[in-house]
Every structure is written in structure tokens, then in C-alpha cells.
Amino acid sequence: MRITLVGSRHFGVTTLNMLREHSVSIVRVVVADAEDRLAAAAQAAGIEVAVQANPKLVVAAEIAPDTDLIITAHSHARIGKDALAASRLGGIGYHPSLLPRHRGKAAVEWTIKEGDPIAGGTIYHLADRMDAGAIAAQEWCFVKKGETARELWERALAPLGLKLLADVIDYAKVHKALPSKIQDEQFATSAPSLS
After folding, report:
1. Which of 29, 135, 166, 188 has the smallest set of CB atoms within 10 Å of its CB?
2. β-bridge mates for residue 125, sequence order
3. 164-183 pLDDT tens trace
């Protein structure tokens, strides 16, 4: 399976490392900033790096030829329709909430702010609307009393994201397709950014 990884920062690097250990071919890494640690990790591993022309949008030319699946890992760029069409299975991303709850940025912070006793993670199909694509995999975890967003992310949600991504990739390798369950819009919440 040929993967184009779009991402940044620490979660992008840990996703890259997980993919390298998961018997897939990472054919290109796409970043918004050439100085990002994900770009450095990819270059060190001998993987081609492309820097987005527009940091808010990934276009087809930035997706490697013959890509089977686009994976996003800590990317705030929209993956354009043309880019998704350039990949055989489209694209998936990880969102650290039980979608459709807490769509948008700062999902973990909103989980804490809202006092949610349960959090979780979702692998979802990339679509026109941010965080609104069909669900490929989802799992929950408890939130500890007094836990900060960072503590919840590091303890449970980041490791959960890597596990769910690996599960969906394994499914795609066997079935040559992605699991898909439409999100129930009646439960959707969209978190404004925290300022």
C-alpha cells in the first residue's frame, strides 16, 4: 500500500514512525512548513518531501503518483477534491474526539472545558467539510478528574490515534476499501477556537 502522509509536528512524526513499522510504502510526506520536524524526519528516512504551495490547501500535484491512501496527522490544511481523487482510496485523518462531537480545532481542549467524562478518537474520511466525513473507526476512553487537555492527549488520545490508524490501514490492506459509517448530524458540535 502506497501512502502519502500530510502532517506536522510531533504527531506527524509518530505517525510516520508507526507507518514505517507497518509494512506500507510511504511515497511522499507533505508539509506546510519546510522547517517542520516531520519534514526533517522524512528526509532523514529517505522519503520525498513536498512543501504545500498554500499552507491551507493540499492539491493533487502535491500527492505522490499512484498513491493508494492519503493520511493526515496534525494537519490543518484542507485536502482538495482533486487531491483526494488522486488517491485510489481517498484520504483519512485522525480527530481526537468522538465525532461528530467537538468538530474543529481544539477538540481536546473542548472535551476538558465541557467536562466530558468520556473522550475518544475517530478515524474519518476526508471530505469537503472539516471533520464531517464518514467514520472509518472510533474508540473511547475515560477522562481522569482534573486532567488537562495535554495530559489527556499524551496519556490516551495520541496513542489511540496511532492504534486506530493502524487498524484502518490493516483493514484497507485486506479489503481494498475503507470502513465507512456516516456521521449522525443530530449530535454534531462545532467548537469555536479557544482564545
Report:
1. 188
2. 92
3. 999 999 999 999 999 999 99
Class of domain 1-88: alpha beta
- Give the per-residue pLDDT at 195: 46
Q: Distance between CA atoms of 49 and 158, rounded to whole angstroms?
A: 23
Q: Where are the domains of the chain?
A: 1-88, 95-160
Write out pLDDT tens, residues 139-157: 999 999 999 999 999 999 9
Distance CA 136, CA 138 (A): 7
Q: Would you give the DSSP letter of residue 144?
A: P
Q: Could you tell me which residue, 194 or 85, shows the higher pLDDT?
A: 85
Count of CB atoms situated within 10 Å of the CB of 150? 11
**For residue 126, is it left (φ>0), alpha (ψ between -120 and 50) or beta?**
beta
User: What is the tens place of the pLDDT at every residue in 75-112?
Assistant: 989 999 999 999 999 999 999 999 999 998 899 999 99
Note whether 70 and 92 are within 8 A (CB). Answer: yes
| Rounded Cα–Cα distance for residues 180 and 178 (Å) | 6
Q: Which of 167, 182, 190, 51 is nearest to 114 (CA)?
A: 190
Which grid coordinates are listed for 192?
469555536
C-beta of residue 9 within 8 angstroms of C-beta of residue 71: no
Q: How many secondary structure helices (H) and strands (E) does the chain include?
A: 6, 9
